[in-house]
Amino acid sequence: RKEVEQDPGPFNVPEGATVAFNCTYSNSASQSFFWYRQDCRKEPKLLMSVYSSGNEDGRFTAQLNRASQYISLLIRDSKLSDSATYLCVVKGTGNQFYFGTGTSLTVIP
Amino acid sequence: GAVVSQHPSWVICKSGTSVKIECRSLDFQATTMFWYRQFPKQSLMLMATSNEGSKATYEQGVEKDKFLINHASLTLSTLTVTSAHPEDSSFYICSARGGGWRDEQFFGPGTRLTVL
Predict the structure, then answer these.
(1) Is B87 helix (H, G, I), strand (E, B) or coil?
(2) A87 vs B contacts (CB less than 8 Å)
(3) A99 C-beta neighbours (distance < 10 Å), count
(4) Three-class SS of residue B11?
(5) What is the pLDDT along chain B (116 residues), one digit of tens a residue?
(6) How close A96 gets to chain B, by Cα (Å)?
(7) Which of A36, B46, B52, B80 qualifies as a cystine partner to B68, CB 3.0-4.6 A?
(8) Nearest alpha carbon to residue B92 among B9, B3, B1, B5
(9) Close Cβ partners of A48 (under 8 Å, ≥ 6 residues apart)
(10) What whole-number distance in Å separates Cα of residue A78 and Cα of residue B86?
């Protein structure tokens, strides 16, 4: 089983829609969770960190469910500029970070 | 977030030459730096983890004699691709962790290497 799993998508949603991505992780001892966005041919950029139950920043909300070992990212009122690949990253023990393969989102006009 | 720079942003070289890529944390001291490579439409692949002042820890399958990593200071790590070949052509990205941040990694803009 992979350490971190994401639905690769693609997710194609209309502007203004709400979209949610899930990311499951295998190590129940994981403590730190992150969502990054990566645009084509660019580096990942940190979107949100989650250390407790969740985090919210404007239209973006991340929720952590420790019992079921998943973390979700909710994007409300999608914009064209939200089109990107969203990476889920989970920190294991020590310096080990596990990356999901990414979920592709395209927001359609 | 914190700022990480990478230089050069792209490089084209002949097969057999060595290429050095620099990664700098500009506004924080990076206790740990990571080096990744990414092929088109694929996920980031961790190559190695380096802590300042100590030897890098390489992931399985990554040749340490081919990909030399030096992390001599808290703001600078270098990756040298020695005797580069066309199959080494890829997008190399560094990230840094440290400063007042807890576990966040901040990525450099990447270096696109093309070996002819």
Answers:
(1) helix
(2) 44
(3) 20
(4) strand
(5) 799 999 999 999 999 999 999 999 999 999 899 999 999 888 899 999 998 888 899 999 999 999 999 988 999 999 999 999 999 999 999 999 998 888 999 999 999 999 99
(6) 9
(7) B80
(8) B9
(9) A34, A35, A55, A57, A60, A62, A73
(10) 40
- Give the total residue count for chain B: 116
- Write out the DSSP string of chain A: --SEEE----EEEETT--EEEEEEES-TT--EEEEEEE-TTS-EEEEEEESSSEEEETTEEEEEETTTTEEEEEE-S--GGG-EEEEEEEE-STT-EEE---EEEEEE-
As given in the structure block, the two tokens for residue B69 are 């990593």
Give chain A's radius of gyration (CA, Å): 13
Taking an 8 Å cut-off on Cβ atoms, the answer to whether B103 and A32 are in contact is: yes
To the nearest whole Å, the CA of A46 is away from the closest chain B CA by 7
Using the Cβ of A99 and the Cβ atoms of chain B, whether some distance falls under 8 Å is answered with: yes
